Amino acid sequence: MATRSVPAVLRGGEGRELPLGLTLLAGAVAAVVLSPLVWVLASALEASGWLDLVTRPTTVRVFVNSALLVGLVTGASIALGVPMAYLTVRTDLPARRSFTVLLAMPLVIPSYIGAFAFVSAFGPRGELRDLLVPLGIEQLPSIYGLFGATLVLTLYTYPYVYITTRASLKSMDGRLVDAARTLQHTRWEAFKRVTVPQIKPAVAAGSLLTALYTLSDFGTPAIMRFDAFTRVIFVEYNDVLGGGRDLAALLSLQLVAVTFVILAVESRVRGSGVETDRTAKGSTVRLGRWRWPAFGLCAALAALALLVPLAILGLWLVRGGGGIGAESLAFRPSYALNSVGVAAIAAVVAACCALPVAYLSARSDASLAWLIERATYVGYAVPGVVMGLALVFFGARYGGALYKQGLILLPLLIFAYVVRFLPQAVGSTRASFLSVSGTLPEAARTLGRTPTRAFRDVVLPLVAPGVLGGAALVFLTTMKELPATLLLRPPEFKTLVTYIWTAQQSGHYGLAAVPALVLLGVSAVSMLVILYVEGYDVE
Amino acid sequence: MSSEDLLRAGRERREVEPPAPEPTGDVVLELDGVSKAYGETPVIEDLSLSVYEGELLTLLGPSGCGKTTTLRLIAGLERPTGGTVRIEGEPVAGGGDAFLPPEERDVGVVFQEFALFPHLTARENVAFGLADRPETERERRVEDLLELVGLTDHGEKYPEALSGGQQQRVALARSLAPEPRLLLLDEPFSNLDVDLRVEMREEVRRILDEAGVTAVSVTHDQEEAMSISDRVAVMYDGQLEQVGAPERVFQQPRSRFVASFLGHASFLAGTVDGDVVRTGLGPVPMERVHGLTAEYDGSDIDVLVRPDDVAARAADGDPNGRVVNRRYLGPTVLYRIELDSGDTIGAMHNHAAEVPLDEPVRVDLAADHDLAWFPRGRRRMADGGRDG
């Protein structure tokens, strides 16, 4: 009897029982969001001769390719991200604060624009070869294939590892390392025995993001002509006559399965994290004669990832035009308006859906609330190309005349956006609900407010910035989304992204400069929002 | 009568002993056999308590004893599993299905972390509970309260711009603004620096007196409880151990727990022998032991000895103990002394006094008040000199 605990007093007494209306609402959101998985499964089960398809050499090859790509990109990202994080947090690296920002910047560039730029720069008829021809070099090693895809994806996803590792290095009590050194450990031993165990969960979390991004990215493998899941699914899907849709459906299911495996692995690694409250800064590591080589390394990385695409886009902008046959492809401002329009609708819908889910999971520790919240994260596990395909399957099957006339496509597209990016809205909204102490609405109630009015007068004003931040994130990521947009847009509906895609496919690279730069601007803003929401600081 | 019967009789008798002057006046709050459980875990069992008009009663107990839960039951933030809560005679929880939600109870609460609304200024916070009053009246009331808590010049500041003490004043003003029938304070000083804490105690007491409000506060700090309360209710493990004026609860604790929780307590084993109690400190006259009568002749008892009830000095021929530990506390020194009888007791001395460590000493009773006692329990709780 002596060990009585008062379990949920701090969470608010009456709120512990799940409120029925709220639970139903959140449950409905979760169910709707999960539905595309049903269509993935259904379309795969309908595929004729699935056993034959699964064991076909193509299928095996695609799986191996994707695994290889994910492994290489994740490994390379850790190899780049962790040292860069350490250099910018713990050492006397020259221009440390500038690098802190510069090294995170590649995240601003959508990988398909990066891939596009790298192909233009280093491809068979690229800018670099044009520069080298006078020097007698006619042939460059091919940028296409595994090498190019790995290079581009690493350059644009290592910041995930870099940012999470930085955050964990900064939140770690620096005096722990000092303590280890007073216990006869060298700098390296201290790093291995004290720092590594502490930053491991953060590195794992960053690697998860990198791996998931790599696995689901459609643009880079497509542009680099590398047969990963996403590219093959897209190609097979378009091969209507060759019966490729069955294969596309099966590969989609496999891709989702692989994603879940990665998520499971990460959640195991994450469990080992140790939290410390004390965050005193330890002593700075002096790099000595390695100072300038380290500087060179950071500078080279930033230059490769940032300067190449910017230089290429600048070049296109200066040269302008797309040459012969490009008139019909000319860019129209309405494309940008289309982008903004669908993104805004997706953002509002996602924010509204996130509200009940986030509120429920922040206020209740019941397992049902946890389950509902987790269910809305399915968007992370369903790549855009799979989502697009699942909804096409759904539309064709049940949309009837609406689907044939293309009327249902735009709602489906927005639905795809909402499902894919809902986790961002839920995460941001939930965090802001958690930051509002449960005693605040209680205080309002003791001062005469009903539960509804307490929510409206006290909780809502306080979570508004988080809700807005979440909506802004959804808006900005929707602007950049490529594969689902390609699959689900109505025939005459063009956006910035589909326009860039068309320009790339048709070889009129110059046309892509303006929309690509606009997208870079959009991405930059979305980075700022993320950093604001997550409290990234430059110090 | 066997000695067991005697002990039982003793216990019963002690419970019906004439009460200290209890507060009179109207009962504002009444808890009647209230219990609360989370699932299978009971937190409060059969708690009955009355709070009278104008008094400040403090629920005192270690963390996890159920005192905060009691407060939340009174406020309507939790539903009791059993029993009845009445405010001014009106049942607000229990007694059938009656449950009045917090917004209809007319009970003010000062929360532990103050729970000020961060998006509202101090003035708006104070006005929050006055939404249904006409504007002029509301403004006047807010002004009055800001003046009462001495924050007239800080009304436009947001909570984050206020110091801890100022935040507490705002919280107090906010909860007093709607003129509640009852004010609840949940660990009101735990969020303040030690220096500020003592100052705010006096200040809060002044404000409550000026507002003339009936209040129930909760704390785990016995010094705080005893210094501001009219009455103290000591809780342990979900039950009420003792209720009474601070002096009385301190000097005549009804249980060993209360004795130990309110300050250093040592228990001196003794045997009643005629008109004295034979102890390790020598015979103690029976009339010095509170409520001990001739019918206990021959029974074993424990006498409560606080560190300032005894005096130790270097033995000059007739030692009865040995100092085993010495803790320097600045103005005073606390000694832990092992008596030859086997008891361990604590003794408090002025910092100038010198009692030799690890040498025989002579310890005598030096109390100028009656000592409390308990029938011999299964476990002797000696706390002299250890952290309490």
Quick overview:
The complex is a heterodimer of chains A (539) and B (388). With 539 residues, chain A is an all-alpha fold. Chain A has 24 helices and no strands.
Protein architecture, described:
The complex is a heterodimer of chains A (539) and B (388). Chain A is built from 24 helices and no strands. Chain A has 539 residues and is an all-alpha fold. The relative contact order of chain A is 0.13. Mean pLDDT of chain A is 83; it is low at 1-15. Chain B is of the alpha+beta class and 388 residues long. Chain B has helices spanning 3-15, 67-75, 122-127, 135-148, 164-176, 194-211, 222-228, 246-251, 256-261, and strands at residues 27-38, 41-52, 56-60, 82-87, 90-93, 107-110, 182-186, 215-219, 231-236, 239-244, 266-273, 276-279, 282-285, 300-305, 310-314, 321-328, 332-339, 344-350, 360-365, 373-375. In chain B, the strands form 4 sheets. In chain B, strands 6-7-8-3-9-10 form a 6-stranded mixed β-sheet, sandwiched between helices. Chain B has a 5-stranded antiparallel β-sheet with strand order 13-12-11-14-20. In chain B, strand 16 (321-328) and strand 17 form a beta hairpin. In chain B, helix 4 (135-148) packs across helix 5 and helix 5 (164-176) runs parallel beside helix 6 (194-211). The A-B interface holds A 1-2, 4-9, 12-14, 437, 439-440, 442-451, 454, 457-458, 461-462 and B 38, 41-43, 64, 66, 68-69, 72, 75-79, 101-103, 105, 107-109, 111-113, 115, 117-119, 128-129, 131-132, 174-175, 177-178, 237-238.
